[in-house]
């Protein structure tokens, strides 16, 4: 199927191997594909030509979304704060409030003094629960009493008794066509892109038109396990490389703990230092990956003793291992990670970096905050920091 977004390049797209080529805040949008993902987070008010292109795109969305939905198109809108965006194109000035993008459909986005509220799912949807671990707050709520759709299903609420923060609308104006799903936006749109985009699509899938649901469904089940999964209502999509690495990091402590309690009188295997963690992590990587380059020199640092821990050559992913010990200061860890990003960014086979910090003694006081601060894109490198256990 074809997908178009103001952040994701138009491309063949399926959930078995989600890849985000780029997520930009500026660009043009054509409402002539199956699925449109709209990023409504803008904070600039400049009047350069790039902003003018963005404003024009948003106006095209506002003016063309009705017809796009009536032709059975699907729109996913990601919202956090709302802004007034202005720009200039060919000497003309333009402006638009992002809160007004869907007002012609009877849907308004209301900011609340830029105060963040926690988000909770109000439907049974495991993928949505996972997505809200990444997009877990929002400053905007929705009003849709007079919307133009046959169905409006509340998906997300701000706080336990708060107002709607995410809604799925289906069948515009009695046509039986079109879906519009509005959800909170991740604060760091470049953070863990494969993970959040896959979870986003899976969260919205039940509200897609039937033909799009079929596009995302594998044509056949090749194993009994897949068929069983399908019949039980569980996701059929095979995990991506990114998902497997994330799961390995998060479950690593359980593996390490099991090795300290071995069968009979066998001597326990302890994770005493960073090299022990690297050895076990490397052994676990061998389950899924063949070409693992261990302890390689970073080209720009060759001869200086700087090394990278692991590189998955075929996947273009680097992996850095840290062990948070009692004497390790958080500031020191952050400085080390900043240096790691620079080193991996120079590696010819590293487009993404996974930094795994093993913290069995809970040395890092605010692991979620640490991950959030250190995850993102620097030196043309997408970096994800995962601390486990938390």
Relevant terms:
single chain; 390 residues; alpha/beta; Rossmann fold; Trna Endonuclease, Chain: A, domain 1; 2 domains; six-stranded mixed sheet; 19 strands; 28% helix; 27% strand
**Structural class estimated from helices and strands:** alpha/beta
Radius of gyration: 23 Å
What order do the helices and strands follow?
EEEHEEEEEHEEEEEHHHHHEEEHEHEE
- The low-confidence runs, each spanning 5 or more residues with pLDDT under 50, are 1-30, 219-239, 300-305
Shape: elongated
How many separate domains make up the residues? 2
Mean pLDDT across the residues is: 77
Q: Helix count, per DSSP?
A: 9
What would CATH call the architecture of the largest domain?
Answer: 3-Layer(aba) Sandwich
Enumerate the strands of the largest sheet in spatial order, edge to edge or round the barrel.
2-1-3-4-13-12-11-8-9
Distance between the termini: 39 Å
Query: What would CATH call the class of the largest domain?
Result: Alpha Beta
Largest sheet: 9 strands, mixed
What would you note in describing this structure?
The chain is α/β, with parallel strands linked by helices. The protein folds into two domains: 2-219, Rossmann fold (3-Layer(aba) Sandwich); 241-388, Trna Endonuclease, Chain: A, domain 1 (3-Layer(aba) Sandwich), CATH 3.40.1350. The protein is built from nine helices and 19 strands. It has helices at 49-70, 126-131, 193-204, 210-216, 224-231, 241-259, 274-285, 330-345, 367-374, and strands at 2-5, 11-12, 35-39, 74-79, 84-89, 92-97, 108-111, 117-121, 137-138, 140-143, 149-158, 164-172, 179-184, 292-297, 307-312, 317-323, 352-358, 376-378, 381-388. Strand 15 and strand 16 form a beta hairpin. It is elongated, with a radius of gyration of 23 Å.
